[in-house]
């Protein structure tokens, strides 16, 4: 194995503590003839456990060794894989190096662990290459990662040459993508060294779709139209969803990501205290072959907060143009985002002309930089009833309509008033009592 791994070039820059490198070192020490059997066994078991942990997290099955190698190929962001993601496989000298690496991976796919098992008197590799995973709810793992890795792994097992192996991998890069962005829908960020950001996948994102949001048809239509133009490479605007709480603003954003994920749409959720990282975030994603929504939930600023100026510069007004593959979608209970006071409206009158204060213009300018603003308002009493009825029907509740409406009225009086969220909570309450 150490000989095979040494031949990797494009995919050879792996961390020393990676599973593949550690197993290669085990094989190297075994072949040296000077080793402790107990030490090598312990090192092997440690790597087997890591494969099992990864396999459990991603619901790998059948041949965990093949699944692991496939996962390495998918996650490796190198010049070759990133180029394939953007333009597909093109004729070029880099293909020569990539095909050499793929030949090595084919050898690793077919690697015979019997020598290692016989020398150490273990059978762990036989077990993980003929593995039967325990059935479990999909919520326990990332379904996007699991499905893609297992499907590609099965396809690679069937290849009969370096060329067919090459075609499978490069097609995956072009159609799905590379690394975490290729496998996941949504991300949060955290800061690492030198103000760079690291993207953490959100594995348990709500699977809501727009049809789950009852009513608000005009709002959904506007949001869909803008997002469809964006993923199709046409001009589109940043979007501000504003209005009353519990009306479905955040749900609409999640649903739109689920709807257009297959078209290359990804979402990055960012919090107010992270706005100073926006420029670095954009620099890291602007050349990727995806469309990114930078999502800001419940966006608002108090009088003494100045973080909104980072956002203003990024949206429109900074020296660097915002890349075409990035939009900002925000939700807020405030139409103008920044808290206004009556003193902001004290205008100065000169010669009969009214001049609005500079303070007010400064505060309104942030909201004005969102090209699309969509209002979500509390439903009427009848609309609230309609939402309750439709949710109850979807959940299979068979209560009498009149009784259901009476109970819905009692519920909303003590639970925040009329809204779609209140209706959802009421139906959940009824389901819990069954």
TrEMBL record:
CDD domains: AAA (cd00009). It comes from the Bacteria. It holds the Pfam family DUF815. InterPro entries: AAA+_ATPase, DUF815, P-loop_NTPase. Residues 235-353 form the AAA+ ATPase domain. This is ATPase AAA family. It comes from Butyrivibrio proteoclasticus (strain ATCC 51982 / DSM 14932 / B316) (Clostridium proteoclasticum).
